């Protein structure tokens, strides 16, 4: 008899796999080990919890542990998998009582996720300094933002999950007046909005010359003035050297150029890394990115061991090669496919196009595919790009807003490689047109011909994506 | 030497062709004959002008006559082309002075558009009864809605174009209190919103059992209660027999079932027909739809005669066969392509997917491709459909709204054939994902794998289109 399907990690990829598996193969056991208390939570919602738009931590749970158990999944929270023995087909698990035990598996999914990095910035262990990854840090940040006399553990709505001692300690501290955000990526921009909602003086430090590098300059050049209009002080091209503290709490941020800013809170969002330590010395190979290499079914180099989610690579829709693009939908989809495969129906995990959208106050930003020209050249393309700004609705209809679209294509074949978009009116969702065109391996000429929706309240006759395709098409050899 | 490029009709298709032609071939003349005074105007904006959201008639012009002339186009308004002689390569034109003359052409584009039909409903010639097609009727409706003592011809902003006698006459009439809309298609729904903004008692009559037949029942079943919530009285499955009048003004609407409703205005929006009378006896063939048949370059069956816009068919993206789908973007695109072709670079007019979006008060509706199962069978498919309702954003994020998506696919091949969508939050633009997938001839399996945008403020992890594809995929043989 086959052993159970064992899943390491109880978030998007892991629980999607376990749920799908159990629906397909009700007779075989599936055990999910999660080292923390939280399971199945929405990372991407944490800035909005901090902001206060999402009231309770538990609102961010897609499924409660009870709902997971109701699906027939054997969920073990506070169980850390600390070793894998592929030859014996067992994992070694450290339980909440501190005792380790071996668990046999028939198939194994490594869905250990990623973690926020803070290196090489010293001082992130000070009180008032945070990375935002997971609900515990979100709870701590919001506890700090609350006035101590208005704070209660219950106000966070994390009943039974939240680290009560930690949030109580933060809740008792004086709220900050000035906060430094280190890193101008997704988390940095979303947290700038969140902190501004608490009326903090917000400073955003970005080592590069522009925020949001994956979205490219066309997007950054509209986001940056918008952030400043909203009161965020930008420090671009500025490397943060360290966070400094007084009596254990962050009190200042020092830059490599010697300048210093007095702050009483800091959020470091300079990237995440895949959690791959567990597979070291198991024979599970990593890809060039440092994340776990997998084939089109999510299988690692070791028999019966799969990987998915933020710890694993996926095939890129445009290059066809594996890439590490840790995002929510693809984690869910890969998990779901692996659940189906393990249950007996081989199902490809699908590709990742790197589709990402972001709210920056009132601006909507989107990006997909390969938008960086150097990256396109590395992948063997001869890229050509065009940027246009066009209206989001018929010009005479109220609410029309300038929408900037940048498209990148391969000169020789005319194939669309990627795109980005920014604007205030329904800009983000329009990136799906580009994402769909990429999956269809369309040329710019095909995109020009798309019969997209037109009605004055929603779109002009020529959607901004079509305008961009027309202009880019004019640059391509016919 | 070649004769000029002559264009019949000065709206979307005609002026797109003339503009593109002149940019590509500056040396050859292009003459545009338009029988009316208005040129290059946005049909789709007229309900919003009547509503009052668009202030001036001239706001609805994409280009003014001066701008058109500046492009080097010889624009002749109030010139009606009344005959074509393909053998002589001339058109016969009736000028504003009532004199007819012959104009030679090298190439000819028939872009005569369509017209609203009112048959078989008697009484549409009464004062207070309208069809909405073109800016003159829109001007008359808004003049009627205004209080006579507040009305002035100038308030319509149609300086130099508007039929001053007609609008002055309507402006002097007492505004209506109760209006009947005959027909529950695009125009009917949009005008229900427009009339409601003027606080009229609005009654909408639809012969079929549901409004918006091209969008299908899944959409209609959400639109109908929404209209009623907004105070529109629906009379579904009700055939209107005639409009009745007193002293020349509409006073009642009579139904085939014998019921009668007292009204003091009526708008008939029961469809449009292509204007093809001009090509009768020219050898230009019509398609099955009754519109002008064209090839992939917009060429008719007669040498050097092209057709585009609401008077012509276009190849349908899904069936590959010609279809008559009179919509704005495809008219513009076909015109532009023909302009390029006539200038020497053969350019396909592209396909029509029948993409349409509509605002019904706060609901956004969209449809694309083949959504009717009978129609799909006629086209040789074995259709299977699924309808789902899913959130427009992460459930915990404010503003998430139920979004209903219906997708239709071919059972044998899994190919996506069409879809419709309805919801209050960014629903319309999402139909572009389906439109793009249709152009890419994607299967449902491919749609399931699309890497669409996810961020809590804009979309849930699984976009409603993906949810629908997952459910429909489960119905298809794997």
Automatic annotation (TrEMBL), chains A, B:
Residues 5-316 form the FAD/NAD(P)-binding domain. Its cofactor is FAD. Pfam families: Pyr_redox_2, Pyr_redox_dim. GO terms for molecular function: oxidoreductase activity. Residues 360-460 form the Pyridine nucleotide-disulphide oxidoreductase dimerisation domain. Keywords: FAD, Flavoprotein, Oxidoreductase, Redox-active center. Gene3D superfamilies: FAD/NAD(P)-binding domain. Coiled coil: none annotated. SUPFAM superfamilies: FAD/NAD(P)-binding domain (SSF51905), FAD/NAD-linked reductases, dimerisation (C-terminal) domain (SSF55424). Belongs to the class-III pyridine nucleotide-disulfide oxidoreductase family. This is FAD-dependent oxidoreductase. It comes from Halomarina halobia.
């Amino acid at each position: 008899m086959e052993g159970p399907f064992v899943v390491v990690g109880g978030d998007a990829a892991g629980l999607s796999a376990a749920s799908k598996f159990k629906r397909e193969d009700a007779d075989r056991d599936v055990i999910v080990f999660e080292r923390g208390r939280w399971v199945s939570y929405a990372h991407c919602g944490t800035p909005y919890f901090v902001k206060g738009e999402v009231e309770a931590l538990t609102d961010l749970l897609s499924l409660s542990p009870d709902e997971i158990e109701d699906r027939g999944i054997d969920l073990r929270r506070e169980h850390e998998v600390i070793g894998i023995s592929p030859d014996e087909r067992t994992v070694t698990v450290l339980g909440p009582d501190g005792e380790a035990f071996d668990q046999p598996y028939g198939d194994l999914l490594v869905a250990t996720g990623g973690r926020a990095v803070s290196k090489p910035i010293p001082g992130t262990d000070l009180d008032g300094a945070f990375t935002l990854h997971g609900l515990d840090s979100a709870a701590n940040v919001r506890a700090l933002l609350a006035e101590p006399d208005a704070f209660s553990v219950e106000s966070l709505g994390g009943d039974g999950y939240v680290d009560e001692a930690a949030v109580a300690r933060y809740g008792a501290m004086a709220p900050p007046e000035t906060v430094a955000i280190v890193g101008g990526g997704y988390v940095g921009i979303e947290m700038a909005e969140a902190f501004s909602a608490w009326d903090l003086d917000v400073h955003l430090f970005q080592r590069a010359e522009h925020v949001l590098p994956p979205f490219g300059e066309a997007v950054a050049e509209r986001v940056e003035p918008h952030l400043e209009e909203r009161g965020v002080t930008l420090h671009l091209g500025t490397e943060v050297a360290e966070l400094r503290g007084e009596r254990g709490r962050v009190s200042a941020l020092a830059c490599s150029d010697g300048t210093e800013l007095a702050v009483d809170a800091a959020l470091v969002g300079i990237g995440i890394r895949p959690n791959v330590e567990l597979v070291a010395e198991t024979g599970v190979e990593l890809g060039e990115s440092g994340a776990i290499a997998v084939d089109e079914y999510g299988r690692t180099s070791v028999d019966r061991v799969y990987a998915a989610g933020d710890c694993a690579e996926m095939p890129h829709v445009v290059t066809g090669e594996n890439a590490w693009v840790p995002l929510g939908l693809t984690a869910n989809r890969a998990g779901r496919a692996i659940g189906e495969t393990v249950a007996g129906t081989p199902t490809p995990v699908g590709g990742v196009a790197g589709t990402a959208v972001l709210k920056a106050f009132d601006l909507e930003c989107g990006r997909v595919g390969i938008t960086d020209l150097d990256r396109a050249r590395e992948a063997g393309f001869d890229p050509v790009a065009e940027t246009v700004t066009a209206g989001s609705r018929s010009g005479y209809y109220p609410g029309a807003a300038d929408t900037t679209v940048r498209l990148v294509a391969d000169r020789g074949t005319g194939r669309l490689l990627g795109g980005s978009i920014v604007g205030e009116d329904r800009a983000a969702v329009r990136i799906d047109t580009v994402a769909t065109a990429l999956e269809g391996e369309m040329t710019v000429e095909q995109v020009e011909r798309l019969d997209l929706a037109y009605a004055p309240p929603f779109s002009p006759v020529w959607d901004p994506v079509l305008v961009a395709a027309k202009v880019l098409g004019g640059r391509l050899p016919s």
